[in-house]
């Protein structure tokens, strides 16, 4: 019996462990999932060296797709990739904007991968503007998050960047993160990640040699030679071509520091390969380092002519480019000064010194400007970070207050229940009435609290609902009239007009249904609906009247107005003005639109030559039907008067003294 119990406990323990493992695996997989939009953004990012214009275009398309889908997670990742691309292009303003946007939006997401990308972008921004402590904090956070979802390729690159940031202040941490970068890179099996990590570890080994550990020079040389061999073998799959150039530079530099005599062939061969990559992909730092090392090498050998030719070649190449690198030119002219001094060619020295002074001053101005830009960027970024922290703290306090409120409400509720039960057994009838009053009071207080906490968004939603309810009151009014007309035609056996009328009625009903679900429509759409409606009425009344719709030159037909405001007045003009008019007199309906730009107001004037208001009222006294059009429209316009004080309408009798009959309706419609 005891053995069975033990076996059951073991089985239960294994089951719980397996269940926990499955949950953890599911959460990790969900967070590590790469969306289609992210794949597009990553592809665009991969083209940043070969075609920077196409790279930005593809990434912006991915961002547009993420916004269209309203997917904040994809937006954050797209903004992060765009920020990293702007770093490659040295555009600080765009870099800052994209990184800040990614970091702020990431606060709304609970996805590990999303937050990791946002911290990566922010860490790179801080590193770019020389805010090393903040850069380390953000990159460490990103590294931790990517580690949780086993994104080894990202971990390898971030760990390498962290090791560079700790150099030379903390050799132990440089070694720690360079070693971790290697481990992640070989788990990722990604050539670019391997090269990234090996460069970081090679840098650590080289720094260690510079500290005096010369006995490890051969070990470092073997490591860097293997790194170069791997880079050459997998160069097609390595996107960051600059890293291949850095590998050549590091190996050549190590040869120059090796035991004498140095391997000149290997040194120059690696420098030539680095120069070729720098020219092909326009990588300034690689080109400067390669030319500089070659020039220093020939200077040390005493071959001043060769050294001078190299530096002059570097200057010519730089001047042939569409932009000027003052730092590079100043460096080359300074090297030429040193070569001229060693050759005792003081005339050349003076000429080179003049040019060096020119470009050095320009370099100094650029450096100073960059320092100011970085300082401004650090200040602005710090303000934003403080604001984000403040908002997070406010959210936490709000949540705590809510929980406290719920706790107090719970305690009060328990107290009320206890009091109710106690008094119930003592005085049933009187206590029950008292409890009902208390409950009503509590409900009133809760309602008051809810009204006080109601947000602007809820108010806007309620007003929108009320407007739609008012619109829904109008639809049955029109439908009843239209169906009555169709019924009348069918009874009179007017089949062809009935079918035509029914088709137009179906089209008009569809338009009204579509527009009643909108908050705004364009004036062009409103005019189209009115034309369809009036032509429907003409067909019904045997073309007993004519109509004209005129827009002043100042009116723009793409302005937005509330839907279905004008149709009820057209209906009144036809039904109560033109329809009762004697058949021998042709009816005329005129609709004019004018615009008051400053008041953001559209004025619609409706004129008819019908029987007029007085005659129409006499006819209405004999009818059971009561039109609600004016009342409904008045309610709708009243709702708009808070934001648009000019909204409203007035109905006037035409001047009978001039022989005119009919009505004039003037509607002031707000332009939304």
Description:
It is a single chain. The chain has 672 residues and is an alpha+beta fold. 74% of the residues lie in helices and 6% in strands. It is built from 24 helices and seven strands. Strands 2-4-5-7-6 form a five-stranded mixed sheet. Strands 1-3 form a two-stranded antiparallel ribbon. Strand 4 and strand 5 form a beta hairpin. Helix 3 packs antiparallel against helix 4, helix 4 runs parallel beside helix 6 and helix 17 packs antiparallel against helix 18.
Radius of gyration: 40 Å
- Principal-axis shape equals elongated
Adjacency order of strands in the biggest sheet = 2-4-5-7-6
Task: State mean pLDDT (0 to 100 scale).
Answer: 79
Contiguous low-pLDDT stretches (5 residues minimum) are 1-7, 14-31
Proportion of beta-strand residues: 5-15%
The residue fraction in helices comes out at over 70%
Number of strand elements: 7
Give the termini separation: 81 Å
Structural class: alpha+beta
Main pleated-sheet profile: 5 strands, mixed
Helical stretch tally: 24
Protein name: Histidine kinase
GO molecular function, one term: kinase activity
Organism: Flavobacterium humidisoli
Pfam family, one: His_kinase
């Amino acid at each position: 019996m005891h053995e069975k119990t033990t076996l059951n406990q073991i089985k239960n323990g294994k089951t719980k462990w397996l269940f926990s493992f499955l949950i953890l695996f599911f959460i990790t997989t969900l967070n590590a999932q790469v969306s289609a939009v992210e794949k597009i953004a990553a592809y665009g990012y991969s083209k940043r060296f070969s075609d920077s214009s196409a790279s930005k275009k593809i990434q912006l398309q991915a961002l547009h797709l993420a916004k269209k889908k309203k997917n904040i997670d994809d937006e954050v990742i797209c903004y992060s990739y765009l920020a990293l691309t702007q770093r490659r292009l040295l555009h600080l303003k765009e870099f800052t904007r994209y990184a800040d946007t990614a970091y702020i939006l990431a606060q709304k997401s609970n996805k590990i991968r999303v937050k990791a990308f946002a911290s990566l972008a922010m860490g790179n921004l801080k590193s770019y503007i020389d805010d090393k402590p903040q850069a380390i904090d953000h990159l460490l956070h990103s590294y931790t998050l990517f580690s949780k979802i086993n994104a080894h390729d990202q971990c390898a690159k971030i760990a390498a960047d962290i090791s560079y940031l700790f150099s030379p202040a903390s050799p132990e941490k440089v070694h720690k993160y360079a070693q971790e970068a290697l481990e992640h890179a070989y788990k990722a099996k990604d050539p670019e990640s391997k090269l990234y990590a090996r460069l970081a570890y090679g840098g650590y080994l080289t720094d260690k040699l510079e500290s005096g550990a010369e006995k490890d020079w051969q070990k470092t040389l073997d490591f860097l030679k293997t790194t170069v061999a791997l880079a050459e073998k997998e160069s097609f799959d390595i996107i960051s071509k600059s890293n291949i150039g850095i590998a050549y530079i590091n190996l050549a530099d190590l040869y120059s520091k090796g035991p004498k005599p140095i391997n000149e062939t290997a040194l120059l061969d690696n420098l030539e390969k680095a120069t070729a990559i720098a020219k092909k992909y326009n990588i300034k730092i690689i080109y400067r380092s390669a030319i500089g090392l070659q020039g220093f090498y020939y200077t040390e050998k005493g071959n001043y002519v060769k050294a001078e030719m190299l530096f002059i070649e570097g200057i010519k190449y730089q001047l042939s480019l569409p932009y000027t690198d003052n730092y590079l030119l100043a460096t080359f002219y300074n090297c030429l000064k040193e070569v001229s001094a060693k050759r005792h060619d003081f005339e050349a020295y003076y000429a080179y010194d003049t040019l060096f002074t020119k470009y050095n001053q320009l370099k100094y101005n650029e450096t100073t400007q960059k320092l100011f830009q970085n300082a401004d960027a650090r200040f602005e970024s710090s303000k934003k970070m403080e604001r984000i922290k403040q908002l997070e703290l406010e959210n936490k306090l709000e949540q705590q207050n809510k929980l406290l409120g719920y706790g107090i409400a719970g305690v009060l509720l328990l107290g009320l229940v206890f009091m109710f039960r106690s008094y119930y057994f003592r005085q049933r009838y009187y206590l029950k009435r008292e409890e009902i009053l208390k409950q009503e009071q509590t409900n009133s207080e809760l309602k008051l609290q809810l009204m006080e906490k109601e947000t602007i968004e809820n108010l806007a939603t309620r007003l929108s609902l009320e407007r739609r309810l008012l619109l829904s009151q109008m639809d049955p009014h029109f439908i009843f009239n239209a169906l009555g007309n169709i019924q009348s035609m069918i009874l009179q056996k007017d089949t062809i007009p009935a079918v035509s009328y029914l088709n137009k009625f179906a089209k008009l009903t569809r338009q009204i249904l579509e527009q009643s679900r909108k908050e705004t429509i364009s004036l062009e759409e409103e005019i189209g609906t009115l034309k369809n409606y009036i032509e429907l009425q003409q067909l019904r009344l045997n073309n007993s009247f004519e109509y004209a719709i005129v827009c002043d030159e100042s009116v723009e037909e793409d302005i937005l107005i509330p839907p279905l405001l004008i149709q009820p007045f057209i209906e009144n003009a036809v039904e109560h003005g033109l329809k009762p008019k004697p058949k021998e007199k042709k009816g005329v309906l005129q609709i004019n639109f004018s615009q008051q730009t400053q008041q953001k107001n559209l004025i619609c004037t409706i004129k008819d030559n019908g029987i007029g208001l007085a005659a129409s009222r006499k006819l209405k006294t004999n009818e059971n039907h009561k039109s609600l059009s004016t009342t409904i429209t008045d309610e709708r316009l009243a709702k708009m008067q808070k934001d648009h004080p000019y909204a409203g309408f007035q109905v006037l009798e035409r001047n009978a003294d001039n022989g005119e009959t009919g009505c004039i309706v003037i509607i002031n419609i707000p332009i939304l």
